[in-house]
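Hello,

Our lab assistant flagged a job as stuck in the queue for most of the afternoon. It eventually completed. Since we weren't sure the result was trustworthy after the delay, we are filing this so someone can double-check. Below is the sequence as submitted and the structure that was eventually returned. Let us know if re-running is recommended.
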Amino acid sequence: MPTINYLARIEFDFGAINNLGTEIERMGLKRPLLVTDRGIADVGILQRALDAAAPSRPVVYDATTENPTEQSLLACLDIWNDKGCDGVIALGGGSPIDLAKAVSLLSSHGGNLADYNVKMGGSAKIGRVSPQIAIPTAAGTGAEVGRACVMSLLDGSKIIAVNLNLLADLVICDPELTLSLPPRLTAATGIDALSHGVETYCSTWENPPAAAIGLEAVRRAANWLPIAVENGADRTARREMMMASLMGGMCLQKALGGAHAMATPLGELHLHHGTLIGILLPHILRFNKGYADAAFDDLRHAMGVPLATDLDDWMTGFVAGIGLPTTLSTLGVQQAVLPSIAEKAARDHLSATNPRPADARDYLQLLSDAM
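-- returned structure --
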């Protein structure tokens, strides 16, 4: 029997961030911690958020790394305790949003993030967390409505905590915040949104509402991502991609598949998640042929793939067409690390919902093909 849950309160429109101060007051927050990164600060989005937050004066942590780390988490918790913070505002892409979830979790529950590892059963212990506001500045991860928190621990391993209680209390989606996103990052984040729809739609878990949302995310991303990459000032394309990203996050409760199972351990090499997904997605589509034919037919229609073209070949061309690499060797991945990555992928919880069962040997072949 499927379990169906939907979701946080979402404010979606150009200029939505202008209501931030009102929302902070409505939630009763007196000293929020605003988690972001230096890139967001450098392009002026942080200052815009701080202006919108008035009369509230959030405490700022702007040192989030591309893949969030336990070191940043501990630094945020020190600020939380020192400044007496009572809520978290995430401003940025998936990394600040995931970091904010972790801050919200440990500030309310204590312990170490490893205590809540979904692979060890720890995520079941997650109850109500500290208040959160999530403000995405890219259209890709859907983390603003995701129930998962992914983070690199001090030992270099990656942990995932998954629980609906990690959802933000409020999500502010303002497409205007994505207008300054450069083409390469637009492409790398956007392909992640597309992949969420593709993999959830093929997932073995039953959840018809999530499947419908995922398919619509695919349609929007396939149509509008090339336009957003080509002309970042196109407001319609930016709005459509932010909606595709949001919907891609909404459908994640149907679970993902083998591309994400491989991307998670590869991410431990400090490689951009969306870029990895763009490389891996065509290979998992080829691997899944014959195991998700009905889903493939629907995806083909949503993306406008000609009948004479294989879905995996079309996806490779799509990724290359938006300026992303199509091989792991381009990113500096070495053949020697692949057996370890394959073993981790086979043990990843997302491998269990891939339409075709895969073991470490299968993943090693897929990764070798992706080189």
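-- support follow-up --
The delay was a queue issue, not a problem with the job. The result is valid. The chain is about 50% helix and 10% strand. Residues 191-370 form a domain with the Dehydroquinate synthase-like, alpha domain fold (CATH 1.20.1090.10).
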